[in-house]
Amino acid sequence: MGQLADLVSYVIRKLLLAIPVILLATLIVFLMLYMTGDPISALAPPHATQEQVEALREKYGLNEPPYVQYGMFLWRIAHGDLGISVGAATRNLEVGDIIAERLPRTLELMAVGLTISYSIGIPLGIFSALKHNSYGDRSVMVFTLLAYAMPSFWLGILFMLLFAVKLDWLPLEGTTGGFASIILPAMTLGIGNAALTTRMMRSSMLEVIRQDYITQLRSRGLPEREIIYKHAVKNAILPVITVIGLDIGWFVAGSVVVETVFSWPGLGMMITTSILNVDFPLVQGCILVLAMFVIAGNLMADILYAYVDPRVRLG
Amino acid sequence: MIRLRKRLNDRLMTWKMAGGVRQTVADIVERGSKNTMVVLGFSAIVFMVLIAVLAPVLPIADPTRQNLNVGEFLQPPSSDHWFGTDELGRDVFSRVIWGARVSLLVATLAVLVSMVIGVVLGLTAGYFGGKVDYVISGTIDLFWTFPPFLLALAFAAALGAGLFNVILAISISYWAGFARLMRGQALSMRERQFVEASRALGAKHPRIMFTHILPNCVAPLIVWASIGVADAITIESSLSFLGVGTKPPTPSWGWMLQSGMLYLDGAPWISTFPGVAMVFTILGFNLLGDGLRDVLDPRMKGLRR
Q1: What's the CA gap between A203 and A208, in Å, rounded?
Q2: Are residues B116 and B110 in contact, defined by beta-carbon separation less than 8 angstroms?
Q3: Cβ–Cβ < 8 Å for A280, A82
Q4: Closest alpha carbon within chain A to B266
Q5: Which residues of A touch B146 (CB under 8 A)?
Q6: Residues of A in contact with B154 (CB under 8 A)
Q7: Do A35 and B268 touch (CB under 8 A)?
Q8: Reported ipTM
Q9: Looking at beta carbons, which residues of chain A come within 8 Å of B136?
Q10: What is the Cα B55 distance to its own chain's centre?
Q11: Is A35 an 8 Å CB contact of chain B?
C-alpha cells in the first residue's frame, strides 16, 4: 500500500474507535440524569394532577425501562435534539440553542489560552534545554513545578487580586472590557499548560541536541545559531506540537473552573450555574459538547502523530 | 534521637537484604533520601499530615464557631487570630488546619480506591492477555480519553455534594492511569523466568499475579500514587469551589476560597491562607512523585500526560 492509503486507513480505524468513546460519553451523561432522581418533578407544573403527570411520563417515555430510555436519548441527540432547559432563567428554551450561543465564548477563551500557553512554553523550554543545569534552567523548572501545583481557581483569584483589585490594570470579571477582559482568564487557563509544554519542549530539545547529526553539523563549522534554530528546534518542536490535541482535554476541564471564577459566559460557567439550578438537561448538553471536543482533540493528536511518524500507521 | 536513628538504620539494613517488597521499600528510602526534591516533598507532606492528624488536640479555635459580634468578623490577622477571621467570624487559621484533614482524607482515600480498581483490572488484563485484555484495555482507554476532572465533575453533579460522593466521583474518574501502568508492567513480566518458574511449580493465577508480579511494581505505583494524591487534592478543591464537592460547614479549602472571593478587596486573607496551604500540600506530593520517578526510573519521565 502507498503512503497515503496507509494514512487514510489509519484515520478510518481511529474514527471507528472513537465511536465507543462517544457512546461512553453519552452513557455517563444519560446516567447523570437517571441517577438524579425522577425528572418528572422538574418537568411537571407545580400543581399538576395525577393524570397530567402520567401524561407527561408517557410523553417523555419515563415509563419505559432504562435501556429503552437510553435508546430514545441516543436517538434524540443523534437528531441534534439536546432537550429542553428546566432552569429558572432559561425555562423551556432549547438546550441546543443555549449552547450554540455560549460555545463561541468558550472557544475564544481556549484559543487565546492555547496561544499563551505555547508562546510561554516553547521559548522557555528551548532556553532551559540550552542552559541545561544552569541557574536559569533551575528557575524555569521551579516555575513549572509551581505553575503545575496551582489549581486554576486559586491562580485566577491571585491574578484578580493583583491585576484587577490592587493594580486596577484589567477588568475583574465578565466580558464588558472587550479584549482586556479575556487576558486574565486566558492567562489563568494557559499557565498550567505552559508548565507542561515547557517540560516537554525541554526534554525533547535535550534529546535532539545530543544526537549525532547535531555534532556533525558543529564539526562542519555551522554557526551555533543556525544549528539550534534551523535544525535542532525544528526537530524538537515536532513531538510537542503533535500533542496539541491532547491539550484540548486540559483546556476543556480547566475552562469550567476558570469561566466560573471570572464569570466568563461560556459553556463552563453554564455547567456550574446549571448544576446549582438543578437544570440537568442543560448540564448534560454542555458536558456532552465538551466531551466531544476532548474526543476530537484526541483524534487530532492521533492523526497528527501518524502523519509525522509513518511507523505508527501500521501499528 | 541518635539511638532512634541507629535503630532505623539497622532496620533498613535488614530490609535491604530481605528481598521482595521490603527490599524495594528500603531501596526507595535509601535512594530517595539523597534526592533534594524527594526530601523537600516528603517533609512538606509529613508536616501537613501531622497538622491534619493533630487538629483535634491542637489548642486552636473551633473551626465552625461563628461570632457575629462587632469587631469579630472579617478581622485581619492578629495575635488572637493568626490568619484573621472570615465573614462569619470563624477563625481562618483553625479552618485551614481542619481543611487539611478533609483534603488529605478525601485525596488519600480516593487514590487508594482508584489504585485498587486500577491494579486489579490492569493486572488481570496484562496477565491474561487475549480477549480479557481486549475488553479491559478497551474500557481503560475509554476512561483515559477524558480528563479526570471532567469525569469527576459529571459524577459529582449526578451524585450530589458530600464527602463520600466526592471520594466516589474521584475514584471512578482516576483509576485508568493506575490500570494502564499495571497492565504494562504485567505484560512485560508475565513471560519472565521467575513467573514461568512459579507457574511450572503449579502456582495458581491469583497467586502469581498478587505475590509475584504486584510486588515488582511497587516503585512505579508509589510514584503514581504520590502524583495521584496531588491531582486528587486539586480535583476535590475544584469541585468544592464549584459547589459540588464537600458540603459546608465542613471546612474545605476549595469552599473557603470560594466564599472568600466575595471579600477579595477588603479581606484577602480569607482566600489567601487556604490557597497557600493547598499549593504547599500539592507541591509536596508533586515533588515527592517527580523526585522518586527521577531516582527510581528515568525511563518513566514521559509517563505523565
Answers
A1: 9
A2: no
A3: no
A4: A165
A5: 25, 249, 291, 294
A6: 28-29, 32, 287
A7: no
A8: 0.84
A9: none
A10: 19
A11: yes
- Residue A164: closest CA among A254, A257, A261, A260: A261
CA distance B239 to B157: 9
A143 touches chain B (CB under 8 A): no
DSSP string, A104-156: HHHHHHHHHHHHHHHHHHHHHHHHHHHTTTSHHHHHHHHHHHHHHHS-HHHHH
User: Which residues in chain B are contacts of A148 at CB distance < 8 A?
Assistant: 286
Cβ distance A156 to A79 under 8 Å?
Answer: no
Q: Would you state the pLDDT for residue B17?
A: 67
Q: Are A150 and B254 in contact (CB under 8 A)?
A: no
| Consecutive 10-residue averages of pLDDT for chain B (305 residues) | 75 70 78 85 92 81 69 70 71 85 92 95 90 88 87 86 89 92 88 84 85 84 92 92 80 84 79 90 92 73 41
Output the pTM of the full model.
0.86
Percent of chain A exceeding pLDDT 90 equals: 13
Residue A124 exposed, middle or buried by CB count within 10 Å (0-12, 13-18, 19+)? buried
Q: How many contacts, defined by CB atoms under 8 Å, are there between A and B?
A: 118
Report the residue of chain B nearest A157, measured CA to CA: B261
Q: Other CB atoms closer than 10 Å to residue B46's CB: what's the count?
A: 11
Chain B, window 109-138: residues with a beta carbon less than 8 angstroms from a chain A beta carbon: 138
Residue of A206, B299, A199 whose CA lies nearest to A214: A206
Interchain pair A253, B149: CB under 8 A:
yes
